[in-house]
Amino acid sequence: MVAHCKEYGFVFPSSEIYDGLGAVYDYGQNGVELKNNIKRYWWDSMTLLHENIVGIDAAIFMHPTTWKASGHVDAFNDPLIDNRDSKKRYRADVLIEDQLGKIEEKINKEVEKAAKRFGDSFDEAMFRQTNPRVLEHQKHFDELHARYKKAMNDSDLAELKQIILDEEIVCPISGTRNWTDVRQFNLMFQTEMGSTADGAMKIYLRPETAQGIFVNFLNVQKTGRMKIPFGIAQIGKAFRNEIVARQFVFRMREFEQMEMQFFVRPGEELKWFEHWKAFRLKWHKALGLGDEKYRYHDHEKLAHYANAATDIEFLMPFGFKEVEGIHSRTNFDLSQHAKYSGKKIEYFDPELNQSYTPYVIETSIGVDRMFLSVMCSAYKEEQLEGGDTRVVLNLPPVLAPVKACVMPLVKKDGLPEKAREIMNLLKFDFKTAYDEKDSIGKRYRRQDAIGTPFCITVDHDTLNDNCVTVRYRDTMKQDRVHINDLHALIANAVDMKQLYKKIVGDSMEDSME
């Protein structure tokens, strides 16, 4: 995947001519188009489908007291542990969660073997309740899970290390268990603002975009005359000094978030929490990447300000991983900013005839993780008839970087001119490419590799009948289509309205009332 992304202009290592910078990446010409399409899909699903959600774009630099109020200065830490032999650093919680995953995998393998052995008569629930090996693994899982959960909630670093030792977890590089103690590491990048060293103020690169929404709550509410419940959406860069940055663009030091903070009456937050859980999962599934690739994962350790938190996880090549979090943040953020700023941050509810600090439901999705989940799901290496192979990206057409590629069969006889004419008909509405180099087969393969849904070939017959050959990426089927019908054909496949109709059903509309 990493090699494919580089070869076809999706993602490059940052500053590659200087040997790169760890866990920092640049998006290439195709990657930025895919990324922008993902952002547009999210933005419009928030601001178009909900009349009570508006957007902002807050600055990256914020007053440093913002991060004191939010708790990031004192508590934005990861529990880290080093292996003395490999000199590699790991997150202690990730090592333990991976161990839990291995135990779960053992259980699933036992179930799979039994299912093959017993066929249609297999009773999975009964097998899980009675098989000695499954019960033994489940007991191990439950005991480890309970111990890990308690250690995380108590911030007991010594116990986290002891769990790693007791479970005989080894360093993936050295294969040894020569571990240091677990310690906390703050993830915020620091810099200075000011013209002189003496007068400079220490500030931070924001580790999340949410605080820009909270400090603008009153600005948006008053200028937009917003009534509770309402939401504020934002897409923007965030920065975290991740020591254990890994798995390509999954965990980076500079990344992009799409966040929406939804402000509700106190006491109604859990109802809205369930609503947004359902809505966000529908948003993901509407892309058609495979419903079985998604699952909810409730947090083991709630942040001190939260009363509910769930992740939407996607099945990456390296297991189920978080792509989005839905959190009930109570009224913590607005209360903290009121306390530290000395300003009153409340909403007057005309229906209740009282003022209160709203509660908040947050939906937070990583653009880069979403990008990776889409790419990993779309990437296929296919064996074709005749022994040929092809690499194809089965991207959802609405997200594809290039929607159509126009190709003259040969570079003469007026075919390039006709192809350019067709491209000019399409390019104002769709990202369209033009390709006249190499054989038509090679050109098809190039477009398959970047996920272009439609290839349009102009041949000599086109000059007589005004029809072209449209070749479909996924099936490789070809149809003769009149030039006048091309626009409607492409529009029907790449119109995001088709996705929005999948998301907003009757039940969802009822729940919004």
Describe this structure in a few short sentences:
By secondary structure, this protein is of the alpha+beta class. The chain has 3 domains: 26-63 and 188-377, 2-Layer Sandwich (BirA Bifunctional Protein, domain 2); 80-185, 2-Layer Sandwich (Herpes Virus-1); 392-498, Rossmann fold, CATH 3.40.50.
Description:
By secondary structure, this protein is of the alpha+beta class. It has 3 domains: 26-63 and 188-377, BirA Bifunctional Protein, domain 2, CATH 3.30.930.10; 80-185, Herpes Virus-1; 392-498, Rossmann fold (3-Layer(aba) Sandwich), CATH 3.40.50. It is built from 19 helices and 23 strands. A 7-stranded mixed beta sheet has the order 3-9-10-16-13-12-11. A 5-stranded mixed beta sheet has the order 20-19-21-22-23, with helices on both faces. The protein is globular and about 75 Å long. Mean pLDDT is 90; it is low at 506-513.
- Strand-residue proportion: 15-25%
Let me know the average pLDDT: 90
- Strand pairing plus helix content: what structural class? alpha+beta
CATH topology of the largest domain: BirA Bifunctional Protein, domain 2
The separation of the N and C termini measures: 44 Å
Q: Major sheet: size, sense and barrel closure?
A: 7 strands, mixed
Unreliable residue stretches: 506-513
Tell me how many strands there are.
Answer: 23
Shape assignment: globular
The main sheet orders its strands as: 3-9-10-16-13-12-11
Assigned CATH superfamily of the largest domain: Bira Bifunctional Protein, Domain 2
Summarize the amount of helix as a percent range: 25-40%
Number of domains: 3
Report Rg.
Answer: 26 Å
Number of helices: 19
